[in-house]
Amino acid sequence: MSDTEPADETADVLDELFATIKQRQEELPEDSYTASLFTHEKGENEVLEKLGEESTELILAAKDDDLEELQYESADFVYHLLVLFAMKGLDVDDLREELESRF
Ligand SMILES: N=c1c2ncn([C@@H]3O[C@H](COP(=O)(O)OP(=O)(O)OP(=O)(O)O)[C@@H](O)[C@H]3O)c2ncn1[C@@H]1O[C@H](COP(=O)(O)O)[C@@H](O)[C@H]1O
């Protein structure tokens, strides 16, 4: 996999993804799945349900030793987690800070 890449690469991807999510939250374009999560009739329950589904899918992939699927479902999970952060007024830096505080 990508264990030779510098840690900053990951940080940049998360920052870029979170900035895109915040932009969708502000502008609510009609053709955006992300925007649809912010306007969903179920409210935040939609993204919470998605997190439940994605975590089940990544657990099943791990149990099957399907690493490609594990990687795919984990990315789905992280994306939905960042949408939840935006909904709650948290920032990706809050996640980074919490992880760093555990070093
Ligand atoms: N990272 C993601 C991302 N990850 C997952 N998803 C969507 O999340 C949904 C996941 O729901 P499901 O698991 O039910 O869908 P599925 O993958 O078809 O089903 P499974 O095979 O997983 O069961 C799909 O519609 C995916 O397209 C994402 N949608 C958007 N992004 C990012 O958000 C940005 C903005 O995209 P828009 O939402 O199109 O504005 C994009 O440029 C991406 O960077």
Explained architecture:
With 103 residues, the chain is an all-alpha fold. The chain has one domain: Helix Hairpins (Orthogonal Bundle). It is built from five helices and no strands. The chain has helices spanning 7-27, 33-38, 44-63, 67-88, 92-100. α1 crosses α4 (67-88). The protein starts with 6 loop residues before the first helix and ends with a helix. The mean pLDDT is 92. Phosphoribosyl ATP (PRT) binds at residues 17, 20, 24, 32-34, 57, 76, 79. One of its GO terms (cellular component) is cytoplasm. It holds the Pfam family PRA-PH. Its main location: cytoplasm. InterPro entries: HisE, PRib-ATP_PPHydrolase-like. It comes from Halohasta litchfieldiae.
* Biggest β-sheet description: none
H/E element string? HHHHH
SS-based class: mainly alpha
Under CATH, the homologous superfamily reads MazG-like
Count of individual beta strands: 0
C-alpha-based Rg, rounded: 15 Å
List of distinct ligands in this structure: phosphoribosyl ATP
Beta content comes to under 5%
Output the CATH class name.
Mainly Alpha
CATH level-3 fold name:
Helix Hairpins
Uncertain stretches of 5 or more adjacent residues: none
Indicate the mean pLDDT.
92
CATH architecture level-2 label: Orthogonal Bundle
Counting structural domains, the number is 1
Report the span from N to C terminus: 24 Å
In terms of quaternary structure, what is this? single chain
Shape: globular
Instruction: Indicate the percent of residues in helices.
Output: over 70%
Q: Please tally the helical runs, counting DSSP H or I stretches of 4 or more residues.
A: 5
GO molecular function: ATP binding; phosphoribosyl-ATP diphosphatase activity
Pathway: Amino-acid biosynthesis; L-histidine biosynthesis; L-histidine from 5-phospho-alpha-D-ribose 1-diphosphate: step 2/9
EC number: 3.6.1.31
GO biological process, one term: L-histidine biosynthetic process
